[in-house]
Amino acid sequence: MSFLSLSLDLSKTVPSFSLHHPEVAIHCLAEMADSKETRLHLYQLVREGVLDDPGNESGKFESYDEFTKNIYPRCYWAQRGGVFLALAGTAWVGLSCITTQGKTGHNGLTVVTRAYRGKGIATLLKKRIIAYGVAHNLSRIMTRVAETNQAMLAINQKLGFTPTLPPSP
Question: Count of CB atoms within 10 A of residue 124's CB?
Fold first, then answer.
């Protein structure tokens, strides 16, 4: 599977945009308790998104026990200030994450459950990631997308992400 690396230059003027959506509210994982319920909601959301990603050729995802032991503590809970959730009432319907290294942000997984796709929620989550980058004085945000994931490529392009060039030999 081929992936594209994309970059958003935050040193240029970034347009302001609304973070309001009529069906969902955006929350930060840092607002949630580290509970079995939180881990289960997150597991179900991440699992559905990863398995549905056109870039996932294996069709596999970790068990809940593996996820809570190996992935959740390191990739989600330890980074909870940069994990944003879309909630429709009490239902967890979307997620996007950002980690930072110096002045660069790295946008990892962005997922939306099947029932809520096509409603602008992934775009809203990506906008929240951009707002985080601006608020934390990052100079750029990087992301990777499977070349076959046309929906996410279109969202990234609409928000100003551009392909990064490979280093010269």
Answer: 24
